[in-house]
Amino acid sequence: MPGVTEALLEVKNLRTSFPTAEGLVHAVDNVSFSVRRGEALALVGESGCGKSVTAMSIMRLVASPGRITGGEIRYKGKNLAELSESDMRHVRGNDIAMVFQEPMTSLNPVFRIGAQVAEAIRIHRKVSKKEAWKQAGEMLELVAIPDPIKRLDDYPHQLSGGMRQRVMIAMALCCDPELLIADEPTTALDVTIQAQIMELLASLQQRLGLAILLITHDLGVVAEFCERVIVMYTGRVVEEAPVDQLFANPGHPYTRGLLGSLPSATKEEQKRLPTIKGMVPPINRLPQGCKFNPRCPDVMEICLGNEPALMAAGSSQVARCYLHGDLADPERLS
Which of 40, 68, 175, 311 makes an SS bond possible with 124, Cβ 3.0 to 4.6 Å? Predict the structure, then answer.
């Protein structure tokens, strides 16, 4: 009998590539992870690290000429990478749904909110227009929009950013998916509204038994909301761990840098926050060996040769770093 820890989604050695004048570049390179039933998993990293391309690959929405060039995306054992487009359309919404960064670009400005939510319902369910409109009102109520029936007649520009994002969450959940992918769902919102949206997602996760894949660069949100976290850099997974373990003892220098650059009321007053030196390298001009080595404070000679594999960095924790391998310098670990 399947338990609560059963994997709902398994991504295995996923590679998503884009053609350039210099040949194929891999925006997502050999990425593997799983999302368990009912859990909240975070995918974090700087802009350009491959988080959103990973999400779009799962949904099979990578913009042409990009394409999946390797690996598997298994949802309940079925490889989504091999499905026809018509079969994949059935998976989207019914099984896996996605909330995008900026709701104003996802909502059509010339149609009423009710019409857009009702259309999302009718695409996936054989119900009348009247029934779809009724269900649209129920979905707005589910996501805690005040006076939901009245809001059905509003246009997107009449709603605040936070309310528009709630509408997008309602549309994503209208066909009762088991997995919700939330791509930077609070980026365009102020801090107070960000907290409200994350509280809403946490509440819906508990009420509906949702699994959530949260894509974000905000480690503060991860600490509050998620159970496990995957850190990406240059299209690769560089660390995976339970959230409390990662925050207490980050295994990769990149993760340590991300955590160190967080503002904190408990830190001694300082003129400037610590930063990770340098920039994320262009995806078509990656360094030899470990891709983080030009920016790494712990770089060793071995880091300049072959790229490290993911290595055990603790209980239930792996990191793509030679600090955890047999060839590590013991002084670096002290």
Answer: 175
